[in-house]
Design goal:
The protein is mainly beta. The protein has helices spanning about 5-25, 140-145, and strands at about 35-50, 55-70, 75-85, 100-110, 115-125, 150-160, 165-170, 190, 205-220, 225-240, 245-260, 260-275, 285-290, 295-300, 300-310, 315, 320-335, 340-350, 355-365, 385-395. The strands form two sheets. It has a 16-stranded antiparallel β-barrel with strand order 1-2-3-4-5-6-7-9-10-11-12-15-17-18-19-20. It has a three-stranded antiparallel sheet with strand order 8-13-14, with no helix packed on it. The radius of gyration is 21 Å and the shape is globular. Mean pLDDT is about 95; it is low at about 1-10 and about 25-30.
């Protein structure tokens, strides 16, 4: 789908402005505490899908990304931009970089040791941060738009000793950037306008998201701690076909524990969306989009995720930091006849010389990323377990 020049120039201007601002900050502030870092990554991927006919076995280019980070005693900021395309699973495009978008782009100010303000495309403070899981493919909480979400807005964080309080306001989502999708050219899983292949798709935009998160840290000794927290958000869903406004509400309770090398992550919550879709579409689903595509999500769900991980000590030749993990996530749906979605990921990440590598075996049932893309997390797909192996090999600089 061809984008208009005005649209393409307006959206990157936001990110470009923040990158320029970060790049213009002094590498060494007057007090000597400022540090500017510019880097990035080149990544490859290997996919093996067991349930396709014939089975898919692909070694491909994955991502090129640019990172800019700045930190000082008062100012700090971060921006990341990604490029995809020209290789599996984006081999429907003919060039690397055909699909590109920012992950985030924000600036922040520190008011002393305990208070920070951040503005720009930044992470919505909801649930376990920064991720619900240690996996590369993340959990089904990500698929329903509540993990690793970066929207355009501002947030305030204040720490009262072990108590961490964050509140934010996001008038818009992270934006639709460059790709082939109608509205899914983005990093975060956001409410989006459906592509033509999405049966029963809707055209909603999320606006005016208010979010709050409170977490408390418990120390259990020198090498053990836990965090227990609660989050809530509310936003407006404006349907572009009916011009009516619905709502989105979500709540979550999370736990993160670290006991030496052992990590435990858990989150449970509920999402309740009340869209105002056209009568022919109905209000039982809302279309979401990310990574150059779109799919339907059931309007009223509960979600669960649990993980254990373990950081193995020592090195094995050039290999170090081996951390195996096991994550299980579920999305249950209120609508009668809708099939629950499940995902299991068993894997490990580790360093091998200059490379950082993820290897994962993934099982999915009614899972959009494991064979049931359009309707898996809505009404459901084939309702059978499907499996895939994935490896990501990255050189970070």
């Amino acid at each position: 789908m061809k984008r208009s020049p005005a649209r393409l120039s307006a959206l990157p201007a936001v990110l470009a402005g923040i990158m320029v601002a970060l790049g213009g900050l002094p590498a060494h502030a007057a007090e000597g505490d400022g540090e500017l870092k510019i880097g990035g990554a080149i990544r490859a991927r290997y996919d093996y899908k067991f349930d396709d006919d014939p089975n898919v076995s692909k070694m491909s280019f994955d991502t090129f990304r640019i990172d800019v980070n700045y930190d000082s005693s008062t100012l700090f900021g971060s921006a990341q931009y990604r490029f995809y395309g020209g290789a599996y699973p984006y081999d429907y495009t003919d060039q690397v970089g055909r699909i590109n978008f920012p992950s985030w782009a924000w600036l922040g100010y520190k008011f002393g040791q305990d208070t920070k303000v951040v503005a720009g495309i930044n992470q919505v403070p909801f649930g376990l941060l920064p991720y619900v899981s240690s996996t590369f493919y993340q959990s089904l909480v990500n698929v329903v738009g509540l993990e690793d979400v970066h929207n355009l807005g501002a947030k305030v964080q204040h720490k009262f000793g072990p108590l961490d309080v964050q509140v934010g306001y996001y008038p818009k989502d992270g934006g639709d950037w460059t790709g082939t999708s109608r509205d899914g050219n983005r990093y975060s899983v956001n409410v989006a306008k459906a592509d033509s292949y999405v049966t029963g798709g809707s055209d909603n935009k999320e606006r005016d998201l208010f979010v709050g998160r409170v977490a408390y840290k418990f120390d259990h000794g020198s090498e053990a701690s836990s965090e227990l927290g609660i989050s809530a958000l509310r936003s407006t869903l404006r349907n572009e076909d009916t011009d009516d406004e619905g709502s989105r509400k979500a709540y979550a309770l999370h736990y993160g524990g670290k006991f030496g090398a052992l990590g435990v992550l858990a989150e449970v919550g509920r999402q309740n969306m009340s869209p105002r879709n056209p009568s022919a579409t109905g209000n039982d689903t809302v279309t979401f989009g990310a990574y150059d595509g779109s799919f339907n999500v059931a309007s009223k769900t509960k979600f669960y995720s649990a993980e254990v991980n373990y950081a193995l000590p020592g090195t094995y030749g050039p290999v170090s930091g081996i951390t195996p993990y096991l994550n299980y996530s579920v999305v249950t749906k209120d609508k009668s006849g809708y099939k629950d979605s499940q995902r299991i990921i068993a894997g490990a990440h580790f360093s091998a010389g200059p490379l950082f590598i993820y290897t994962e075996m993934r099982w999915g049932k009614n899972d959009p990323y494991t064979g049931d893309y359009v309707s898996g997390v809505a009404a459901g797909g084939e309702d059978k377990w499907k499996k895939a192996f994935y490896a990501n090999i990255g050189y970070y600089f």
